Amino acid sequence: MTTGFQTETIVALSSGALPAGIAVVRISGPAAREAITALAGPLPPPRRAVLRRIRDAAGTEIDRGLVLFFEGPATVTGEDLAELHLHGGRAVVSACLDALTSLPGVRLAEAGEYTRRAFENGRIDLTEAEGLADLLAAETEAQHRQALAQAGGSLRALYEGWMRQLVEARAMLEASLDFADEGDVGEDATDAVAPTLAGLAAAMEAHLAGAHRGEILRDGFRVAIIGAPNVGKSSLLNALADRDVAIVSDIPGTTRDVIEVSLDLAGIRVRFADTAGLRETTDAIEAIGIGRAEAAAESADLVLLLQPADAGMIHVKPDERRGATLVVRTKIDLAPGVRFGSGTLGVSTVTGEGMGALLDEIARSAREAAGDPAGVVPARARHREIVADALRLLAEARMAPAAELQAEALRQVTDRLGLLTGRVGVEDLLDVIFSAFCIGK
Ligand SMILES: Nc1nc2c(c(=O)[nH]1)N(C=O)[C@@H](CNc1ccc(C(=O)N[C@@H](CCC(=O)O)C(=O)O)cc1)CN2
Ligand SMILES: Nc1nc2c(ncn2[C@@H]2O[C@H](COP(=O)(O)OP(=O)(O)OP(=O)(O)O)[C@@H](O)[C@H]2O)c(=O)[nH]1
Ligand SMILES: [Mg+2]
Question: Which residues bind GTP (predicted)?
Fold first, then answer.
């Protein structure tokens, strides 16, 4: 485990932009006690808010505010930690930070440094730190729920559970080597660990199967709006966004770049991409735009293929490279009375007709693709890639012909999984070896 004993004490404004009703200044590190006594008088009892006058070194009053002290190591950072709850004025906060940083061993914190210390002091692992970052960035309900679960240790518990099983399997294999002639350890250790390893591989596969859901929850459900020039793609994007994001004109070929808009649909982030109209072209720039449109359609979770209602229904051949496709007939105000087959929606951005049904359908697809936000799924490409690597290494390890080789191959799997949580150590292995077998006697 990384030990991050710090001699420097860090201070920062931990609450939001000033001015604000209240501002919270946090102080973490060995000088947190002295900082409180220097600015606010005797150290209050731990975890009790007390109202104090806060003064600088010259005795000039900065504010009257609440003071809290938390004694390390059972704190969020793992160090002595103090909080000053001030009035949220710029001059108040800047005077307070000046007074704090003029104390010996106290400096301003860098971005993410409290969380970094929490990690270095073993309070949280990397997945919890990532969850915390996502929690601060969460905008939709699904992002919020996923981040809260991850910050609370959902991924950590899963990955540490796998690591524990691997370490136990290694301990069993290694014990069979070191103490092969003793009676209390099974002869055929590779057979003994085989069911555990099979179960682990299945668990990793199941976890990977949820990777796309996790990334949709975190990064958003991607919808590409495509179709021939002038069918009303940009008009639809503007109607969805409820503002003039993209240029609309009756000149075919108006849009060239991909234009993105994010919406919160039923608690899920949905990212719409308006694209260049698809057609044969000799214009080099337009051709680049059409290439980008195709790429957007290929990486989308849902493709809205737009066709005007006042033109005849164009038969669309299914394109396997694209995501699931929903045909949307546009400009239905120009074709009153036209009926469409089931599975086709009609909209008008002029009258707004059909927009509600279209949004409902997109929200339904997004919910279906995202699944349960509280489910334990890989949230980032980092998780997916490491688990996939570990699974490949595990498959190799399972084929190892002898206990010695298998133990070594499993060490590579644990090392790889250790990148997920950021904590891997031989201590774990030693603990298991010594506690699970009556070796020392
Ligand atoms: N004012 C304030 N509000 C805040 C925080 C904070 O640091 N300050 N938090 C900042 O993240 C969050 C609350 N999270 C916290 C998580 C753990 C502990 C803590 O001290 N845990 C110890 C002791 C638990 C106990 O004794 O009840 C532990 O886990 O060992 C404190 C806050 C959100 N709200
Ligand atoms: N009557 C009617 N006209 C519409 C509707 N939607 C779009 N239009 C018109 O159709 C023309 C083309 O609209 P755009 O949204 O620019 O079409 P586009 O598909 O983005 O076109 P490109 O960017 O050139 O591929 C414009 O003149 C719009 O005003 C609609 O629902 N009803
Ligand atoms: Mg356009």
Answer: 230-235, 249-255, 274-277
Q: What is the mean pLDDT of residues 235-259?
A: 96
Rounded mean pLDDT of the chain? 90
Q: Tokens 């982030």 — which residue?
A: 269
Residue 432 pLDDT exceeds 80: no
End-to-end alpha carbon distance in the chain: 28
Ligand 3 centroid from CA 296, angstroms: 14
List strands edge to edge, sheet with 345-346: 259-265, 268-274, 221-227, 302-308, 324-330, 345-346
**Over the stretch 399-411, which tens digit does the pLDDT of each residue have?**
998 999 999 999 9
Q: Whose CA is nearest to atom 3 of ligand 2?
A: 331
Q: Which atom of ligand 2 is nearest to the CA of 248?
A: 16
Domains of the chain plus CATH, in order, are 4-123 (3.30.1360.120), 127-210+377-422 (1.20.120.430), 219-370 (3.40.50.300)
- Please tell me the distance from the alpha carbon of residue 111 to that of residue 100, in angstroms, as a whole number: 18
User: What is the rounded CA–CA span in Å between residue 15 and residue 98?
Assistant: 17
ipTM of the complex: 0.85
What value does the mean pLDDT take over residues 98-102? 98
> Nearest to residue 169, comparing CAs of 342, 415, 403?
403
Identify whether 19 is preceded by a cis peptide bond (ω within 30 of 0): yes
pTM for the whole thing? 0.84
Q: Is the CB of 80 under 6 A from ligand 1?
A: no
CA of residue 84 to ligand 1 center, whole Å: 15
Q: How is residue 420 written in tokens?
A: 């997920």
The per-residue pLDDT for 373 is 76
C-alpha–C-alpha distance, residues 57 and 35, integer Å: 11
Nearest residue to 269 (alpha-carbon basis) of 320, 314, 219: 219
Helix (H) or strand (E) holding 330: strand 324-330
